[in-house]
Design brief:
globular, 44% helix, alpha/beta, Rossmann fold
Length: 272
């Protein structure tokens, strides 16, 4: 058992004192939103047929009767002027190397709020050896953040989600023959999901994800207009119901709904 004592009580009190003003000083709701990301933000394979379904995106989606309350829809309910100003700049298959191009699009769109969920494809590559190196990931994310910092309108805000725990997919479906077949046939995340991988291979992916999420936290923390989710998305215990049965990889409708709620609760306006 760890012994803490008075020092920890003082430290906790100090942390609460520092965090409290941030939580109580939410910025005004934005009148535009742009999303930077990959196939998760495009809502790929979310339901019913293969392909992108951006109307069901956790971030900018506006689809009706899908039980998904996206960030855009939550803002729209309170600030009607955001209507039609939802820009999904994400691209299926994108890696962090593509974030700067997407950031430039968000700048051109004069977005007042930008969400970022990027990095799964830097982990989910053809093999363990082809995952994006941490120093490369840092440089690429830093370039995207600098583009946003220098180009977004004054008063704009950025939210950065941690990368969901990709190892959880393996844990959920490692004994599912259909999932194993689809992963192999489609070549999905073979750095983690290949049947020929060793435990050491999979642990390497786990360790790399911890490194990449730490980089997202550190780089975002350099900018006062950027908010990281404190690894809430990474730590969330997604279940098989949250995963599309088209590919056993992307979020299902329930997964997108949960992702929208989870990230909003850790965004700039959690009480709205």
């Amino acid at each position: 058992m760890r012994i803490c004592g008075a020092f920890c009580l003082v430290s906790v009190a100090a942390a609460v004192a520092v965090a409290a003003p941030i939580a109580s000083a939410a910025p005004p709701l934005p009148n535009s939103i742009a999303a930077i990301g990959d196939s998760m933000t495009q809502a790929a394979d979310v339901c019913c047929w293969y392909g992108d379904h951006p109307a069901q995106s956790w971030s900018t989606g506006g689809g009706a009767f899908d039980a998904i309350s996206s960030h855009y829809e939550r803002i729209l309910a309170l600030k009607p002027s955001v209507y039609g100003h939802n820009y999904n700049d994400s691209v299926s298959g994108a890696k962090m190397r593509d974030a700067q191009t997407q950031a430039q699009a968000a700048v051109t769109q004069r977005a007042r709020y930008v969400t970022i969920l990027m990095g799964a494809n830097d982990l989910c590559t053809g093999s363990v050896t082809t995952m994006t190196a941490p120093e490369t990931f840092r440089a690429q994310f830093s370039a995207a953040m600098e583009t946003l910092a220098s180009g977004l309108p004054q008063g704009a805000h950025v939210f950065v989600s941690s990368i969901p725990n990709v190892y959880l997919l393996y844990q959920l479906f490692k004994d599912n023959a259909t999932a194993q077949f689809i992963w192999s046939l489609a070549g999905i995340c073979q750095s983690l999901l290949s049947p020929s991988n060793t435990d050491a291979d999979r642990q390497a992916v786990v360790e790399r994800e911890l490194q990449l999420n730490a980089i997202l936290d550190e780089v975002c923390g350099l900018y006062s207009f950027c908010l990281f989710d404190n690894n809430a998305t990474y730590h969330y215990p997604f279940t098989s119901a949250h995963v599309s049965k088209l590919d056993y990889f992307h979020p299902s409708l329930a997964g997108q709904a949960t992702l929208a709620q989870l990230t909003w609760q850790n965004s700039w306006w959690p009480t709205e």
